[in-house]
Specification:
The protein contains six helices and no strands. The chain is mainly alpha-helical. This is Large ribosomal subunit protein P1.
């Protein structure tokens, strides 16, 4: 779970981004002090360096987006239901074949 210091820096960075202001350690520290939150001195610089050169809007928009594998698995192709039924039927056939092979008159550890 994030500490108060981390959250204060995240919110400060979001405020600066929302106001189209460059995100720097000094500006994050100014906002944190204005909110009367005690933050360890390394956090503002750490966040400013981490966000430097990144498009904050892209980071925000991609935060909850699934990976390519999740999107493909979540949206089956047309006719996916028929394929699923075929797979179930195949699985049933395999199970019935396995059952008939199981009783061969001897056990593995006999």
């Amino acid at each position: 779970m994030a500490s108060t210091s981390e959250l204060a820096c995240v919110y400060s960075a979001l405020i600066l981004h929302d106001d189209d202001v460059a995100i720097t350690a000094d500006k994050i520290e100014t906002l944190v002090k204005a909110a009367k939150i005690n933050v360890e001195p390394f956090w503002p610089g750490l966040f400013a360096k981490a966000l430097q050169g990144h498009n904050i809007a892209d980071l925000i928009l991609s935060a909850g987006a699934p990976g390519a594998g999740g999107a493909v698995a979540a949206a089956p192709a047309a006719g996916g239901e028929a394929k699923a039924e075929e797979k179930k039927e195949e699985a049933k056939k395999e199970e019935s074949e396995e059952e008939s092979d199981d009783d061969m008159g001897f056990g593995l550890f006999d």
